[in-house]
Amino acid sequence: MKKLAESRSKAYILSPEASRALAARRPDPEADENHRVATALTADKPHLASPKARQFGHVETWIFDLDNTLYSHEALIWPQVDARITAYVADMFGIDGMSARALQKYFYHQHGTTLKALMDIYAIDPHAFLDFAHDIDHSLLAPNPSLGDAIGRLPGRRLILTNGSRRHAENVARELGVLDHFEDVFDIVAADYIPKPDRRAYDMFFEKHGVDPAKAAMFEDIAKNLEAPHAAGMTTALVVPATIDPYRDAFEQEAVAAPHVDYVTRDLADFLDSVVGPGPSRG
């Protein structure tokens, strides 16, 4: 055991050559650009546009993700869902919480969602999973009249596209006071349990709702989920938190500078006002 411990400790000691190579390593240009975007977003400048950003004048359909896009992380909606998914995994496999959490995140990274992994590998009942995961408390989710007003003034159709369930989306949107502004919800069931960012999920959405992606805009909180929409021709906006969300990984809330991200905003309601003009109460 002593030799094993010594060998492990030595494995973490860099040689002088490795240390010099690490120090001389060039910074990652993409990481530097992401940092520039993140630091440029301030209370006085909550939105940024890429140099080649597509515009909104042609947009006829406005599509919104739900979780961490339509509401702030302070409402503690997603942490509850995330914790219940962990509990589901722990109960299913008879393991402790920390082991369940690690397995859950492995499933997420390998399959897009924990649900997809459990369906593909273990053929679980997805309805029971979704009902359990979304049985949460909404008491901290306050109505957002500014957001509702801004969404309501968007010209054309408005839809929610989520990896969650319809019931969850409707419950959250209702508490926010924005549900009546949306024509419909396209959930993970409608996508045949294929989650974003898989291109097939978007294609099924386009077909079901008759959406021309070249005349549509997508608002989403995870940058990789905007790759397929942008490639299909959509105008894209990444919604990042105004403050660091301690319950999510860094990559899930990063202000990303990438060709598939036209805009970055930390204030969705204000950004929509900048697109269509402020309403009477805010102008």
Explained architecture:
- It contains 12 helices and 7 strands.
- The chain has about 280 residues and is of the alpha/beta class.
- It has 2 domains: about 160 residues, HAD superfamily/HAD-like (Rossmann fold, 3-Layer(aba) Sandwich), CATH 3.40.50; about 55 residues, Orthogonal Bundle (DNA polymerase, domain 1).
- The chain has a 7-stranded mixed sheet with strand order 1-7-6-5-2-3-4, with helices on one face.
- Strand 3, helix 9 and strand 4 form a beta-alpha-beta unit.
- The relative contact order is 0.17.
- The N terminus is likely disordered.
Topology (elements, then pairings):
Elements: H1 2-11, H2 16-24, H3 29-40, E1 47-49, E2 61-64, H4 77-93, H5 97-111, H6 114-122, H7 126-133, H8 145-152, E3 157-161, H9 166-176, E4 184-186, H10 199-209, E5 216-220, H11 227-232, E6 235-239, E7 263-265, H12 268-276
Parallel strand pairs: 2-3, 2-5, 3-4, 5-6, 6-7
Antiparallel strand pairs: 1-7
Helix pairs in contact: 4-5, 5-6, 8-12
